[in-house]
Write a structure and sequence with these properties.
By secondary structure, the protein is an alpha/beta fold. The protein contains four helices and ten strands.
């Protein structure tokens, strides 16, 4: 069984056409899984619906506790991209998670924006990667995966890249 934790982020934002603003209404993950005809054995839990810039240590501890409590050794976490690396680092520094494979993923464009969103692709990649990678904490974006300590978000280009040594 794969544990899927939802934390919000651009991935799950909806668009208010009148005000021109983004907001959280509900997670889009069940619809995404249904549209993709996913038949994986998944346990889905929404931990929070937050923009990652709003996440603090208390929120990261809640994510950590959920990962520790899960009986699954394969965990995917949907997360906002702005602080995705910080949460991955927080989780990776917890020795008790070492026997688990954890993959964090997000989207640069909300799923609600339709075919222009990268969220659908990133979720599919994360679900595949969590089944094949050895235990550790990873980030899955743009069809690639990164170890938690070998990646940064290039905000100028809007992509995740390997750190230069």
């Amino acid at each position: 069984m794969i544990q899927l934790f939802i934390t919000g982020g651009t991935f799950d934002k909806s668009y208010n056409h009148i005000e021109g603003s983004l907001y959280f209404e509900k997670t889009h993950v069940p619809e995404m899984l249904q549209r993709s005809r996913c038949h994986l054995n998944l346990e889905i839990e929404t931990l929070m619906m937050k923009d990652s810039l709003e996440l603090n240590t208390t929120h990261r501890k809640k994510i950590l506790q959920a990962c520790l409590k899960s009986t699954s050794t394969q965990i995917v976490i949907t997360h906002g991209t702005d602080t995705l690396v910080e949460t991955a680092t927080f989780l990776a520094n917890t020795a008790a998670l070492q026997p688990k494979t954890i993959v964090l993923t997000g989207a640069m464009i909300p799923y609600a924006f339709g075919s222009s969103s990268d969220g659908f692709f990133n979720l599919g990649c994360a679900l595949s990667l969590v089944q094949t990678l050895p235990p550790n904490v990873y980030i899955a974006m743009q069809g690639d995966f990164f170890l938690w300590n070998e990646v940064h978000k290039n905000k100028a280009l809007g992509v995740f890249e390997r750190k230069q040594n």
